[in-house]
Amino acid sequence: MNSAEKFKYYKQIIEDNLDFGTKLVHDQSKNVGEAMLYSLSAGGKRLRPALVMSACEFAGGKAEDALVHALAIEYIHTYSLLHDDLPAIDNDDLRRGRPTNHKVFGEAMAILAGDALLNTAMDIMLSDTVKNIDCQDLFKRKVLATREISRAAGVNGMIGGQVADVENEGKKASKELLQYIHENKTGAMIVGAVRAGAFIGGTTEEELEDLTRFASYLGLAFQIRDDILDIEGDAAKLGKNIGRDIELEKSTYPVIYGMEESKRKFNELNDAAINILEKYGERATFFIDLIKMMSIREK
Amino acid sequence: MNSAEKFKYYKQIIEDNLDFGTKLVHDQSKNVGEAMLYSLSAGGKRLRPALVMSACEFAGGKAEDALVHALAIEYIHTYSLLHDDLPAIDNDDLRRGRPTNHKVFGEAMAILAGDALLNTAMDIMLSDTVKNIDCQDLFKRKVLATREISRAAGVNGMIGGQVADVENEGKKASKELLQYIHENKTGAMIVGAVRAGAFIGGTTEEELEDLTRFASYLGLAFQIRDDILDIEGDAAKLGKNIGRDIELEKSTYPVIYGMEESKRKFNELNDAAINILEKYGERATFFIDLIKMMSIREK
Predict the structure, then answer these.
(1) How far is A81 from A62, CA to CA, in rounded Å?
(2) DSSP annotation string for A13-55
(3) ipTM
């Protein structure tokens, strides 16, 4: 399997199992299950869960061992988009080419479906972890992975970045603040995904450190790419409205650094990320190819 | 210490440590910390965290061992109230005698502060658990407690009940649906609190089973009491508006069963709860007194 096929393979496993947590929903509240599944199955790259599974393999485990944590991270990512789209926050009507959750299920249900996705993510990770309670080593590793993901989603991770982002709409952010937003709003979950997968796979200290640095470069590059595509991208291909950042007066890389410098920074981060993992040779192929797949082709 | 003093003691520990998780908030997003703390420190009975700590003691542990999980459950309870109060859901202006979170911090921040409370709850429980990673027994017990709380908050617990409640506003619920809502919206977290504390304290199977039955009666009784007080209570004492259930056309015990039958059911549940724990003699004093403290005095 080459890396593109591998990514497809991970994506397929994830998409085949998206209802893993929503199946738990009781009949009396089944609409929340539908609302959850609506947003979960709206497509998307599935980058974060693919990172969980590939990092698990990189560290010596089987991708399937990390499946529940991979799903959980996709649930958390989905809840964050769902709440971000709400009228009180970004007020978006379109997400991945479809009406946003609150447009279909109403605002009350969209809030609760977001909450339910986050709760279910934690629930499935912990249940999966407890299943391994008698296998001391894997049990510990799954607890560490669960902790990693919960920390990445929290106030010193994604939510912290979201808050700073929302609070600074309409203001020109300092470079430090922009860095904080990007590192947390997007970066934290990408780092968390890689670290969680690595834990489950039985990572060494050195591998973990390298993967963490790799993921933090990847996460920042990924966000800069998103900022660039919001200006230069193709709405139909992206499945979302273009120019929303500018409409919402968000501070983005192109706004603060200019387009040319943003692209330079993006390429620099990609190179740095590749450099870190090159010493691992073939084992790192998927991660290195991932960086290459993400590159922005000049028009 | 008699039971009233004991409750006060638990309450004090909780209130002294409410900022345990909000202290983690980064300077760049410190407003979310303030919003979280605003709702956390708005008062309230602190019943759920007191149950975590008392169940831990009942099962042979120290109350302080369960402190982080007790705080986490209060964070989760607070997030659920905060989101319930939002304009799109119950649209409440007043909670515990103060303006609701979105009235003070705006709707966007209130949504994110709720999310942050839930995330932080998971984060502090898992960090606390991982701290005990080298003490195999306590580590396992804390994982089980964390799982218990996450399950109680999830789609087969609190969120499930919230969804069914919101979806059935304005309709007369069947008795089965009312039972489902009460067992989940309120009951699940009360059962979860007791079971989580019991795990941390090192409970036996039999104790766990008895405590679970006790807590499920307590939870239902507690919700019926709430329904009754929404009609017969004193707004000033409760710190919230009276008659909101009727305004929102919620299905409550008095609506479905009538007031007299509701009070009969309430007393019956209290008696049943006491019966289960009587065999434990003095060890159960706090729980039994708790039931007595909760009783509704006739006007």
Answers:
(1) 29
(2) HHHHTGGGTGGG--GGGHHHHHHHHHHHTS----HHHHHHHHH
(3) 0.94
Predicted local distance difference test score (pLDDT) of residue B299:
37
Question: What are the residues facing B94 on neighbouring strands?
Answer: B99
- Do residues B80 and B6 touch, judged by C-beta distance below 8 A? no
State the number of CA atoms in the 13 A half-sphere of B85 facing the CB.
Answer: 28
Shortest distance between the Cα of A146 and any Cα of chain B, in A, equals 8
Task: Please state which of the ranges A28-42, A96-110, B62-76, B162-176 shows the lowest mean pLDDT.
Answer: B162-176
pLDDT at position A299 is 37
Q: Is the dihedral of CA A15, A18, A20, A26 positive or negative?
A: negative
Distance separating alpha carbons of residues A146 and B146, to the nearest angstrom: 11
Is residue B94 helix, strand or coil?
strand
10 Å CB burial of residue A282 (0-12, 13-18, 19+) is exposed
Extended strands (E) in chain B = 94-95, 98-99
Distance from CA of B30 to the nearest CA of A (A): 9
Residues on chain B touching A177 (C-beta within 8 angstroms) = 28
- A77 CB neighbour count, 10 Å cutoff: 24
| pTM (predicted TM-score) | 0.94
With CA atoms as reference, the chain B residue closest to A90 would be B108
